[in-house]
Specification:
The complex is a heterodimer of chains A (140) and B (128). Helix content of chain A is 81%, strand content 0%. Chain A contains 6 helices and no strands. The longest helix of chain A has 25 residues. Chain B is mainly alpha-helical and 128 residues long. The N and C termini of chain B lie far apart (47 Å). The chains are: A mainly alpha (140), B mainly alpha (128). Chains A and B meet through helix 1, helix 2, helix 3, helix 4 and helix 5 of A and helix 1, helix 2, helix 3, helix 4 and helix 5 of B.
Chain lengths: 140, 128
């Protein structure tokens, strides 16, 4: 119990530090650590992650709003779609077994993590992959 | 050839915004993440928002999205607050700390290191 609370606090610290330094969201840090370091099952890890994202995103949104960095019209329209999608995604997740959801998440995690790589490096990787696997029209 | 008005806000199609929002929301609910990885690039590349405005707007989108997502998860099984509360405290406090360090840290290598962590985690999760 106490160890779990301390572990959770440390995961929060890691998520806070990395989101500030790398511009990543909390979820990409929280979900794998909840699952692997604290041994939580996949549904619990993801539910906790979403609950943690609420106050962290709220603080960030308010800070950005004050600086005039929120496009209100864009936010409302995106949010309408996103809220509907979120219910759909979470409902699908609830239908999946823990192990299936965990493997699906593992695949998504690599794709999400790839986006975090520096843009110059991603470009370099893309070039190398294209040289190895010539895609139609991509040859130079 | 690229358009010459790349840094101006393009007339955003409402249907396209709703569709991208839907995709980000599905990802958020399905995987327990915010969805910023979809929202931010879409706003920058498809709708011409500046990066910092896209990030601020993305956070505003994530708030209601994550609330609804968390409530949907709670419908099956209550959210474990003994985990969520300490995690949130750590995350909120240290987001402020790290924001002030952001220019003093070599982000390039940190990003690569983070990707290594991601790949190792993904393999461990996949193998179970």
């Amino acid at each position: 119990m106490t160890i779990l609370v301390i572990g959770a606090l440390l995961i929060g610290v890691a998520a806070g530090v990395l989101s500030g330094l790398l511009g990543v969201g909390g979820g990409i840090v929280i979900v794998p650590l909840m699952a692997l370091a604290l041994g939580q099952d996949q549904h619990v890890a993801q539910g906790v992650s979403l609950a943690v994202i609420v106050p962290t995103a709220l603080v960030g949104a308010v800070t950005n709003w004050r600086k005039g960095n929120v496009d209100a019209r864009m936010a409302v329209l995106f949010a309408i779609g996103a809220v509907v999608g979120s219910v759909a995604g979470a409902t699908v997740a609830a239908q999946l077994s823990g192990p299936v959801l965990r493997r699906l998440f593992a695949v998504a995690l690599v794709l999400l993590g790839y986006r975090v790589l520096p843009a110059s490096l991603r470009q370099d990787i893309r070039k190398r992959v294209q040289r190895l696997v010539p895609v139609g029209g991509a040859g130079s | 050839m690229a358009a010459t008005t790349a840094d101006q806000i393009r007339p955003a199609s409402t249907a396209l915004i709703l569709a991208i929002g839907l995709a980000g929301g599905i990802m958020s609910g399905l995987f327990g993440v915010g969805g910023g990885v979809i929202f931010v690039p879409a706003m920058v590349s498809a709708f011409g928002l500046a990066q910092h405005r896209a990030q601020g707007t993305s956070l505003a989108i994530i708030v209601p999205t994550a609330i609804v997502g968390a409530l949907t998860y709670a419908h099956t099984k209550p959210i474990d607050l003994s985990l969520a509360v300490p995690t949130a405290i750590g995350a909120v406090l240290f987001a402020f700390v790290s924001a002030s360090l952001v220019h003093k840290v070599p982000a390039y290598h940190l990003k690569i290191l983070f990707f290594v962590f991601v790949v190792i985690s993904a393999v461990k999760l996949f193998v179970g």
